[in-house]
Design a protein that fits this description.
Layout: H1 6-39, E1 42-46, E2 50-53, E3 60-68, E4 73-79, E5 82-93, E6 96-109, E7 112-116, H2 126-132, E8 142-143, H3 149-166, E9 174-175, E10 177-179, E11 183-190, E12 197-207, E13 210-223, H4 226-236, H5 238-262
């Protein structure tokens, strides 16, 4: 049989390389196209991105709304700024209640809420809940010092219980309304004592037990007006704030005393 010439071998090798390169490009475009399609499967936004706390602030409702493409269920997770939180345990010592022990958790979430289109336990896999920390029982807390797992669990439970009593952690999932299988909306309720700082409002689309798409939207809670001035004074100049607080208390006491004497 005739042997291929060097030119024919070169052409064959070049053709093979072009085919391989084309296949690689198609694979890459397919992967990125799939990701882009998933990314566009959910879009969300807020009615406002800034919550101002002034003297008359009694709480606020912020609307989160959006649209989904295709079937699926929606979960919304609201997380406030992280901060160190110390939990103290009291005990009766010599007939007096006193702090027996304490644990400080670093970078603990100050505010946390979950809303869903249906009850989570019925359709959301535990692996997804753990991976994305969906639900207070799946939140991750890290103590500043090494403590045993049983001790950490006790203090972590106390932290969650205290936060729920303040209204900073949701006790149960809120409701996400899905209209026509396309549009969704939910209201995030911020109490009067809401912590200030940067918040993230993350919406997830889950289909057949798999996370299809997610979008994170920022929100900022800040003090304004005289509330902000007092807050900044207390944090930037604590000595001056303390002196002013004492002077105001003394003046109020003298004024009350003078009013009582006139009667």
């Amino acid at each position: 049989p005739l042997q291929p010439t060097s030119t024919a071998l070169a052409l064959r090798e070049a053709t093979r390389m072009r085919i391989l390169l084309t296949l690689c490009v198609c694979c890459v475009l397919g992967i990125f196209g799939s990701h882009a399609a998933h990314a566009d499967a959910l879009v969300a936004d807020l009615s406002e991105h800034l919550v101002k706390i002034d003297l008359g602030f009694t709480g606020k409702k912020v609307l989160l709304y959006g649209a989904i493409e295709g079937d699926g269920k929606v979960v919304v997770v609201v997380q406030g700024p992280r901060e160190p939180i110390t939990i103290r345990r009291k005990a009766r010592i010599a007939g007096v209640w006193a702090n027996e022990a304490s644990v400080t958790f670093k970078d603990a979430i100050s505010f946390y809420q979950v809303m869903a289109s249906e009850e989570l336990d019925e359709w959301l896999p535990f692996s997804l809940r753990e991976r994305h920390q969906i639900g207070v029982e799946y939140l991750s807390f890290k103590p500043t010092e090494e403590i045993g797992p049983a001790r950490q669990a006790d203090f972590q439970t106390a932290l969650i219980r205290n936060k729920q009593a303040l209204g900073h952690y949701g006790v149960l999932e809120g409701r996400v309304s899905v209209l026509g299988g396309k549009l969704f909306r939910t209201e995030v309720v911020f109490p009067a004592n809401v912590p200030t700082g940067s918040y993230s409002m993350e919406a997830f689309l889950v289909r057949d037990g798999k996370m299809i798409s997610a979008q994170k939207t920022p929100l900022y809670v800040s003090k304004s007006g005289i509330e902000a001035e007092i807050f900044n004074l207390a944090h930037d100049y604590p000595e001056i704030y303390g002196i002013l607080a004492i002077l105001i208390a003394v003046a109020a006491g003298l004024a009350a005393n003078a009013g009582a004497l006139r009667r």
